[in-house]
Amino acid sequence: MCGESIHPTSCIEQSGVNMNQTLGAILSVAGLIGIIFFGYQYMQDSESFSLFGADIAVSTGDVIPIIISVIVLVVGLFIYRSK
Question: Residue 49 contacts by C-beta under 8 Å, 6 or more apart in sequence?
Fold first, then answer.
């Protein structure tokens, strides 16, 4: 605990680690929710048609929000795992 510590800066360092883990967890969850949400939208924006007996799928969705969500998830995981 912070009151039992010999060094006065140990409380600050410990709260910084907890804050990093909290921030990392929030970013990770937000990134995962973004991947699910924008991935679902991307799949809903896909259309398929048949040409000479073959089914062809064409997507009109935007992939940029999915990429940004993946980046947010990865950054959140790195922050969570850092000390």
Answer: 55, 56, 58
> pTM here?
0.70
Task: Collapse the DSSP code of 7 into the 3-class scheme (helix H, G, I; strand E, B; otherwise coil) and give the result.
Answer: coil
For the chain, the 3-state helix, strand and coil shares in percent, each to the nearest 5, are 65, 15, 20
Question: What is the spatial distance between Cα 42 and Cα 3, in angstroms, rounded to a whole number?
Answer: 52
- What is the tens place of the pLDDT at every residue in 3-58? 555 655 555 556 667 888 999 999 999 999 999 999 999 888 878 778 788 877 77
Q: Where are the beta strands (DSSP E) in 6-80?
A: 46-51, 54-59
User: How many CA atoms within 13 Å lie on the side-chain side of 37?
Assistant: 10
